[in-house]
Amino acid sequence: MRAILVVNPQATSTTAGGRDVLAHALASQVKLEVVETDYRGHALAVARDAARDGIDLVVAHGGDGTVNEVVNGLLADGPATQLPALGVVPGGSANVFARALGISRDPVEATHQLLSAIESSRSRRVGLGLADGRWFTFNAGLGWDADVVATVADRRGKQTNALLYMRAAVTCYFRPRSPRLPLTVHVPGEEPAEVRMAFVSNTDPWSYLGERPVHLNTGSSFERGLGLFALRKLSLPLVFRHVRQALRTEAEHRGKALVKYDDLAKLSVTAEEPVNFQVDGDLIGRRTQVDFTSVPDVLTVLA
User: Fold this and answer.
1) What is the β-pairing status of strands 266-279 and 193-195?
2) Per-residue exposure over 104-124, b if at least 16 CB sit within 10 Å of its own CB, e if not
3) Fewer CB within a 10 Å sphere, N or C end of the chain?
4) How far apart are CA 132 and CA 96, in angstroms?
5) What does the alpha-carbon distance between residue 110 and residue 70 come to, in Å, rounded to a whole number?
6) Which residues does 20 contact at the CB level (< 8 Å), separation at least 6?
7) pTM (whole model) above 0.85
8) What gap in Å lies between CA 279 and CA 273, rounded to an integer?
9) What DSSP element (H or E) covers 125?
10) 62, exposed or middle or buried, with CB in 10 Å at 0-12, 13-18, 19+?
11) Strands 197-201 and 266-279
């Protein structure tokens, strides 16, 4: 088996020592090449070339941003039956995709899980979301959450942690950089709904606050369609109530201001003026329209 290990040295919990241990362990079972990323989009380029060269496995060692780049590289030429499999050894702060797959947050334990999967040829197929030409593994959004991502974008890397995102969320709520523009959600067969923020989930939990999972669409999974969670207004009592519900083990979001769907094949979100748009916690840019599509059974993951 030919494999490439893609390491993001700027990710929160990656170290040179951890990289060497991981590389040594993988090299005992596969013919391995190690690549350290040194610019935005590097992991995508490496994974794209790996898919075109017929590599069997690409392992992402970094945070969710690194995983997202690798996934987009693997699928750069579109879905295919002979794409490389994906392996993940977490090295970020949240590691949402890996944890949703049952992969340990501890890099050493995650390495053992990956080696076991290689040895036993254990894998699973997962569905992904596609938004404005960008693949996402666990979530995408427009509005408040994307504003938060934009606020912390310049500090991504070793400084990233849950506290940083919480501070940014509070800052963006009380002191938004620009007016909070209305969004319109379009779900096939339903009346358009005007909202102030929109999350689209490909799995649940949507994110984590340290050890605590954050639930928005508990019906979402890698085997189903997309989940939509949107709020018609962002009053402080409403936001506080849904944050509290999201942190419960059995989250049941309800309310007249809530627009929520599970297992959607398609939807779109529009705005009269450009708003921030994020995918898997990375800021993509500003958009006036984003079309979301669920693509089932599109990627092989060793987990």
Assistant:
1) unpaired
2) bbebeebbebbbebbeeeebe
3) N
4) 21
5) 18
6) none
7) yes
8) 19
9) strand 124-131
10) buried
11) unpaired
Provide the residue-wise pLDDT of the chain in tens; the chain has 303 residues: 999 999 999 888 888 898 999 999 999 999 999 999 999 999 999 999 999 999 999 999 999 999 999 999 999 999 998 999 999 999 988 899 999 999 999 999 999 999 999 999 999 999 999 999 999 999 999 988 888 887 777 565 555 666 666 777 777 766 776 677 899 999 999 999 999 999 999 999 888 877 788 888 988 999 999 999 999 998 888 888 888 888 886 767 888 899 999 999 999 999 999 999 999 989 999 999 999 999 999 999 999
Q: Which residues pair with 57 in a beta bridge?
A: 3, 85
Tokens 């709020």, residue? 231
